[in-house]
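Bench log. Compound arrived from synthesis this morning; before running ITC I wanted a structural hypothesis for how zinc ion sits in the protein. Inputs:
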Amino acid sequence: AGRKQRAAARRKAFSLFVKAKEVPAASRCPGGGEGVRWRCCRQAFEELPGIHRHVALHHSGDVGRQAGLGAGPAEAAGPAEAAGSPTGSAARPSGHSCGSPEISWTLPDTSHVSQEDLTSVIFFFVNIHFLFAYLCHAVGSQVGDVLLYYCYCEVRDPEKLSAWQKALCQHLHLTGKVRVASEGINGTVGGSKVATSLYVKVMLSQPLFKNILCQEDFKSSAGGAHCFPDLRVGVFKEIVPMGIDPKIVSYKETGIHLSPQEFHREVEQYLSQATQGQSDTILLDCRNFYESKIGHFQGCLAPDIRKFSYFPSYVDENLELFKDKRVLMYCTGGIRCERGSAYLRSKAVCREVYQLKGGIHKYLEEFPDGFYRGKLFVFDDRYAICSNEDIISACRYCGVLWDQYKLCSSQHCRQLVLTCPSCCNKGLTACCPVCQEKELKVTSRASGQILKEECECTRRRPRVPIERVSPRMLDTGK
Ligand SMILES: [Zn+2]
Ligand SMILES: [Zn+2]
Ligand SMILES: [Zn+2]
Ligand SMILES: [Zn+2]
């Protein structure tokens, strides 16, 4: 008897919640987009299904409490799990339902796909002639794809999601890295074109992501399974390691998303103001120094930090810089900005924080010759992908223009080095003189030693640089 009543109460609370997020008609047009009818969690919604989905996914706990059902976040009930529509079949026992849908264990049917199409590597074993196989390899490196994607959502059973991901990737012969956490999933995987497109299809049909992920959230570039040494799938606390508990700084507090076009326009405006020295905007590259070194947006502020987990301290140490500023943030695919902007916002010093939706990846698809110059660093064996011919960095040793990274030749060092072919030929293959010397001494012993994350040359750098009041950012001429 109570079940129907509870469902009705929930439906009512749901519509009230949505109603409360309505943008008053009078204030709709100026400033914001014309079609915006609802706003919630700093996101704008133009259509009813959009706001319904959002509330179902992120506010089921609030709705439950408003309905007087006393549902805590752990057992918070969504109105209708997948569709997220309050008018759907809502009569479910609230005690057993949950805001995030069950993970479905789906593996695609690959029986109709040939091994060649699935792997694009099998080629080598099928072809008898070695030379021909070698040629196939050269061509083969272009036939596959590398996908990059993330999805912030509430994952109730990260272990299960991780196990399914592992099975799925193995099934499709994909390599790469997939991070799962209770805050979502983040992956970069490589494989044949057939395999990666099957992967996308299955991911889009997974109930957990169904209403959040869409085709264009997958950024793809030429590559393949050979771009990664292996497959790594695991459960972590965060899907991108910022080092801050997602319960303290949540992706839900993120900055305002700008499409590549909107971002382009903002950068254009910023650059025209900045050359006259009157900008109230900071264009912030939130990637690591070695990424922004070989490619960045003109006029950006690129923090000299070695990893993303230093970003929060960078913000803390440079708060004054961000005071009353509009901040335009960007990163590779957008994921670091999601929580990076949330962190910056949590400091309550900026006027507003914006982020580039889909990151540089999506920007370059629309503006290959826009304000982003140089190469896009990627975390796989390709090191970088290219969209324009500019080279904006130099050889560490002779200063000639050069942007192709190599791993330091010293056995136990993981630093990347920019050393041009002629310096390489002279034997300058390490990241710094210290490593270069070490390499000569330590030739073949102690192979069991673990790779060191830091080298003498990076340990001497300040971990978190303090920017001067007028930041080193205007390289608009480049
Ligand atoms: Zn919301
Ligand atoms: Zn050189
Ligand atoms: Zn080194
Ligand atoms: Zn070094």
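What the model suggests: The first strand starts at residue 38 and ends at 40. The pocket of zinc ion (ligand 1) is lined by residues 40-41, 54, 58-59 (CB under 6 Å).
ITC booked for Thursday regardless.
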